[in-house]
C-alpha cells in the first residue's frame, strides 16, 4: 500500500470511494462526498491523501483549516476519512491519519481536531480535554491532537464546506 497526495486523476475515485464508504454508516447524512468536493473547490483542502494498492484508491483522508473561537492559529480538522468497505479494519485509515498528522506537523501546524468516536481516535493519540466544544455536541467526541503549544479551548468550527453541506 502506498500513501500519497491526491492527484487530479484521483478525484472521481475519491468521490466514489467516499460515497460507498459512508452509505452504510448509521451516522452519515450523505454529505461527506460533497464536503470533500467543496473543500477542494474552495481551496480549503489543505492536505488530501490517498491510500493506493495495486493502482486502486482504497482510502482517502482530508484535512482542512479550522478555527477555535474564531482564530485559525495553525489548527486543522481531520475528515472526512474513507476506506473501501472490503479494506476496513485493516489499518488503512490509521495509516492515512498517521501520515496526515506527520505532514501537518512538518508544516508546523499547531494541531489537528476532529469529531469522532473516542474509542477509535483515542488509539491514534487524539484526546478530548472537555475544553473544546462544537455546536453543543458531547465534548467527549470533540477531540484534538496537539503538536505544539497548549491544548485548545473554545468553540471549534470547521471550514465553510461543512456548513454548506448541512452539518
Automatic annotation (TrEMBL):
Residues 1-148 form the N-acetyltransferase domain. This is Acetyltransferase. Gene3D superfamilies: 3.40.630.30. InterPro entries: Acyl_CoA_acyltransferase (IPR016181), GNAT_dom (IPR000182), MshD_Acetyltransferase (IPR050276). Its EC number is 2.3.1.-. It holds the Pfam family Acetyltransf_1. It comes from the Bacteria. GO terms for molecular function: acyltransferase activity. The keyword Transmembrane does not apply. Keywords: Acyltransferase, Transferase.
Amino acid at each position: 500500500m502506498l500513501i500519497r497526495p491526491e492527484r487530479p486523476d484521483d478525484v472521481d475515485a475519491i468521490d466514489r470511494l467516499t460515497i460507498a464508504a459512508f452509505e452504510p454508516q448509521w451516522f452519515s447524512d450523505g454529505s461527506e462526498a460533497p464536503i470533500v468536493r467543496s473543500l477542494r473547490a474552495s481551496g480549503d483542502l489543505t492536505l488530501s491523501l490517498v491510500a493506493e494498492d495495486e493502482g486502486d484508491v482504497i482510502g482517502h483522508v482530508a484535512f482542512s483549516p479550522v478555527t477555535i473561537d474564531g482564530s485559525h492559529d495553525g489548527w486543522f480538522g481531520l475528515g472526512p476519512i474513507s476506506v473501501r468497505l472490503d479494506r476496513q479494519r485493516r489499518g488503512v485509515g490509521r495509516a492515512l491519519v498517521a501520515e496526515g498528522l506527520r505532514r501537518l506537523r512538518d508544516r508546523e501546524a499547531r494541531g489537528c481536531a476532529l469529531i469522532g468516536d473516542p474509542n477509535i481516535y483515542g488509539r491514534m493519540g487524539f484526546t478530548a480535554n472537555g475544553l473544546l466544544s462544537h455546536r453543543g455536541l458531547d465534548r467527549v467526541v470533540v477531540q484534538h491532537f496537539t503538536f505544539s503549544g497548549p491544548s485548545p479551548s473554545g468553540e471549534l468550527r470547521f471550514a465553510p464546506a461543512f456548513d454548506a453541506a448541512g452539518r
